[in-house]
DNA sequence: TTGTACGCGTTATCAT
DNA sequence: ATGATAACGCGTACAA
């Protein structure tokens, strides 16, 4: 039966072509490339030379189809404009790239419904595994995961419910910052929150716990806005705080963006930091060290979170890991002059 | 011949399965999904119902293999830690996602050799097209592109040499900033450069042209460091500037990061900005509006660059475009209090 | 150690 | 408008 010529996918050179040119079968070429130990050295060298000469490029689609493994990992993050998650991506890339895995990035926009839609859409790529942000996926999401038997590692937070996770305790970090402010003699501490995703909620929990323990929790001092965080919002929140006459001596911002905007507004309004008001942020982004005054904040190991989470997922994919892993990478309080 | 059961790739439901359940052939199901016009309404509805019921998920790998189109675009950016390129990614995603294209991201680390390696590696995915940063790819890179007949759109800069590009004139932007400083009465203007990639070089060209035209160019006032840019480096560069006693009345930083670090150091050392020294940055990142004093800088349309570049590439892929496109999105000088 | 036969899920081609 | 058949390039299973 004549082989009808069709449009080729890649450069045109196939395993078969390489095999012919080297005087071996296609499968031998495949073995030279993937399991060189199983091929005699003579053939190996010959084949490799031809591979080089012909500029052979493997075809991932064919490989995927034949092996039922896509060598692809789906990474779901809430936002592309937040450096925190980008740093995590960099850590992930550092591990996946050398391992021959491709990362597919999905932006959930902090929305569980969009997260579910993304999973549905990306299922077409049949990823071998998932890296997720946080623990608050929807029930349908989890069912879909289970149905497709997809291993997943959750990043940025911790849980003991049996899911793999790599991160740190958001609540402990929130508490630690408040204990620091308390230790500096502050009692009237406000909490400024934006976005109000699960991580901010847990930092808020930590804030409440610490202040309650010190007997100085006042719900009126919690300023919460569900809209996306921004420096402008931080500046506005300082105005709101003053307008409400809440008589604060410290503010704990749920992230550095708010804190940076708030610090700038303090400068403009002539409010002495930390004299009149101590200011604290969260994440230790690059600008935090360069504000006036430099910002006290929580340094988070987001790059390592990505790195280790990717390693953990690869271990699962290789079947090396059995028990659920819960890897706590901790956090560090960066005490600077704003407190 | 008995069909041996093997491991399935996706959820397990195939076009064939859907077809059987609906009493049609696999190809009809395919048509219902991709070219519904070519199928009778009765069948269409029936098939769609079964697709829904069985939870059919198309298999991209098989589609790719059979159609020689991967619906995948390779995006090469120099860095993940620079917000500029992340914003571009967001713009790209905004266009590719709804169009059913998957973006693969490669990080070149500002290195042409790595860029070439990435292209080689990603060729396995046989991307349908490329989105590149800048114009300075290696000769081998371009040959590889040509050999595989891959359409590419260059981002961030302009050229009239026949390659598709979307961006703005880096040199004009550098010149514009210097003309602004000159117009404010400054004559002893320093240039601080880091990374020294092609874009920084062009901004430097613009700086030189503007100052030469005004008759006040002094090469000694160019501080260039090939290492990656950082706020720390900006602070260090102010120290270096003062140590060298170059007697400057303005500094043009090649990006906002340098400028932010430099401004902070000015605060620490009690240097009045803009009184003693005017300071300018480049890119208009979020923190630029919140420094003390707020930073004069060049706002760059990076989000739109990503968006339009992706659209241009899609047009090429559809064969709609013929002549090379060179799309100038311009830039805007943000005059703030630092100058 | 090397090769043969076949299937992975889809689309292109051609026939009806 | 719908279907039959082959082909995409590779890896698995099994044979030699």
UniProtKB/TrEMBL annotation, chains A, B:
The question of whether Glycosyltransferase is a record keyword is answered with no
Query: One Pfam family for this entry, by name?
Result: LacI
Q: InterPro entries in the record, alphabetically?
A: HTH_LacI (IPR000843), LacI/GalR-like_sensor (IPR046335), Lambda_DNA-bd_dom_sf (IPR010982), Peripla_BP_I (IPR028082)
Q: Which UniProt keywords apply?
A: DNA-binding, Transcription, Transcription regulation
Q: Where is the HTH lacI-type domain?
A: 13-67
Which Gene3D superfamilies is this protein grouped with? Answer: 3.40.50.2300, lambda repressor-like DNA-binding domains
The organism is Vogesella facilis
User: What is a single molecular function from GO for this protein?
Assistant: DNA binding
UniProt keyword Oxidoreductase present: no
Kindly indicate where the leader peptide sits in this chain: none
Per its UniProt entry, which superkingdom is the organism in?
Bacteria
- Protein name as it appears in the record: LacI family DNA-binding transcriptional regulator
